[in-house]
Amino acid sequence: MLITERKLLERFNAAFNRHDVPAMMALMTDDCVFENTYPPPEGERFTGQAAVGRFWQDFFAASPQAKIYIEELFTAGERGAQTWRYTWVDEHGQAGHVRGVDVFHFRDGKIAAKFSYVKG
Asked: DSSP for 21-85?
């Protein structure tokens, strides 16, 4: 049974906040694409389960208190988008945050692409 694209993103975001990389990757296609917000101006691009999964493992290892708070989420057919507030605590105990947006492409009930953009 295929889940709705909205439910797919809700599950992906919940897995992100648990830092559950296997659960995140189970929701993405084998040939998935992720474009990070860093480094500017284009962000780094990762392609395929192994590369995207490795990025998330390294990301959570470097930012163990990372959380994402979804401000707005919508889907329309094979596309979706969400605005978010990402929070972290740095190595000196200082809290920080940034706001941004993700643009998604869906295929066969999974996330085929996640393109992330940040304000500032």
From this structure: HHHHHHTEEEEEEEE-S-STTT--EEESHHHHHHHHHHHHHH-TT-EEEEEEEEEETTEEEEEEE
Using one digit for the tens of pLDDT, what is the confidence trace for 59-111?
999 999 999 999 999 999 999 999 999 999 988 999 999 999 999 999 999 99
Looking up tokens 């940034």 gives 98
Contact of 104 with 1, CB cutoff 8 Å: no
β-strands 28-35, 45-47 pairing: antiparallel
**pTM beyond cutoff 0.90:** yes
Q: Is the pLDDT of residue 2 over 80?
A: no
Question: 19: Cβ–Cβ under 8 A, 6 or more apart, which residues?
Answer: 60, 64, 66
Q: Please state the φ and ψ torsions of residue 7, each to the nearest 5 degrees.
A: -65, -35
Backbone angles phi, psi at 11, to 5 degrees: -65, -40
